[in-house]
Design a protein that fits this description.
Number of helices: 3
CATH class of the largest domain: Mainly Beta
Radius of gyration: 21 Å
Shape: elongated
Strand order of the largest sheet: 3-2-1-4-5
Number of domains: 2
CATH topology of the largest domain: OB fold (Dihydrolipoamide Acetyltransferase, E2P)
Structural class: alpha+beta
Low-confidence stretches: 9-21
CATH architecture of the largest domain: Beta Barrel
Strand content: 25-35%
Distance between the termini: 50 Å
């Protein structure tokens, strides 16, 4: 039984570590990032979907937790209910709110990218916003506003 709880705890840590605020990590130290500045030309909300892993993981965790409730046929019902509830919650958490941005860089080049929006600190880019973005191997690894606007 102890092994089950350890496995559940490790799965929860792995799952929710992806929800942590995005900043720099130890792996980022020493990387060469190329900064560019520009203006957001267009911005639209998009939804990023996962491969179903969130629902599967949520269902497993929900089933394990539900199995701890009751006994006999009540335990079976709780296990199924936990699995369904966990799958629904896991699926909701796995979908990320994001924005598709078209940015005109100061050098005249236009790029399009999709950036995740942190639900804990949502900041939605708007057309006309000045931004700084960092590229590494033609991939946007970070984007930030060059000013804080009054909301």
């Amino acid at each position: 039984m102890r092994e089950v709880w350890i496995a559940v705890a490790l799965l929860l840590v792995a799952f929710f570590s992806g929800c942590a605020p995005k900043g720099y990590t130890q792996a980022d130290l020493g990387k060469v990032l190329v900064p560019y500045e520009g203006v957001v030309v267009s911005a639209r909300a998009v939804e990023v979907e996962d491969s179903g892993a969130g629902a599967i993981l949520g269902g497993i965790i929900g089933a394990v937790v539900g199995h701890q409730v009751g006994g006999g046929s009540g335990r079976d019902v709780a296990t199924v209910a936990g699995a369904i509830t966990g799958a629904v919650i896991g699926d909701k958490l796995a979908h990320a709110n994001a924005q598709e941005l078209i940015i005109k860089l100061d050098n005249g080049r236009k790029i399009a990218t999709v950036v995740a929006v942190d639900p804990k600190r949502p900041f939605w880019f708007r057309p006309g916003d000045r931004v700084r973005l960092y590229l590494q191997d033609d991939r946007v690894v970070r984007i930030e506003p060059l000013f804080l606007r009054d909301e």
